[in-house]
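Priority: low. Protein: Type II pantothenate kinase. Input follows.
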Amino acid sequence: MIIGIDAGGTLIKIAYTENGQLQFKKSPIADIEGVAKWVNGLGDCEICLTGGKSGVLRSLLTKQAKEIVEFEATHRGVQFLLSKMGRSETTYLVTNVGTGTSIHCIQNDSQERLGGTGVGGGTLVGLSHLLTGVSDYEEIVRLASKGSRERIDLKVKHIYEGKEPPISGELTASNFGNDLFSISDELTKEELLATVIGLVGETVSTVSVQAARQCDSSLVIYIGSSFIHNPLLKEVVESYTILRGSTPLFLENGEFSGAVGAMTTL
Ligand code: ATP
Ligand code: MG
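Result:
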């Protein structure tokens, strides 16, 4: 058995082969001891670790394990999962919306980190909790998918009243920027959560499209667990990326890129 483990800030992602089949597994970082116990209880296996918490995991393992830098693992994993989807692109941007967001340019079989933003999946959960008291991720994304951003976000067309705006009036002029002091008590959890997801989605796609100019490619591959069960985030990111002239692609099992990449080094 060969196992790749990506221990990130929020979730531990595991990719392994069993009877020649690729399998995936994930656990919250709070259960890092449970993951170590699972690995320690396995028979003969080869292990490669990556991610910010790989050092903590390593200290809990009774088996030998290799280690690879997170960005390299992600790059390898994206290549692997992309070819599994039957795609053959070699130049593209990768935006990993994890706890935070990291952006990479892939060219000539190597990756360069172009930058990132602190607005990511951690922001989605943290801001959602502060605004609504909801703390369960699945509950946040379920409620958000039923909400409207109409009353909370300020669009360009709201500012350009009775006048043709120089850019699309449908663009967000200001996330949470609408005149909402007088209605703040009546806003629903669904509306607030949808607007948080709008803020995260528009920020990561805007930064990605700007970074794509440095990368000689208009293809932006989005990965990271923030897209799990989150059709609203996908929709915001997809439409904003297209609106800004790039092509979005959501990689199948993309949240396991780091784990898969680590596994492929074995
Ligand atoms: P980083 O790469 O920044 O160190 P990470 O690898 O842990 O972090 P991901 O696993 O890619 O990050 O994404 C974490 C985000 O995914 C969370 O912030 C949250 O928005 C979302 N998420 C998806 N499923 C869950 C879940 N079951 N529990 C908590 N967060 C989840
Ligand atoms: Mg990660």
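The first helix runs from residue 32 to 40. The domain at 2-85+256-263 is CATH 3.30.420.40 (Nucleotidyltransferase; domain 5).
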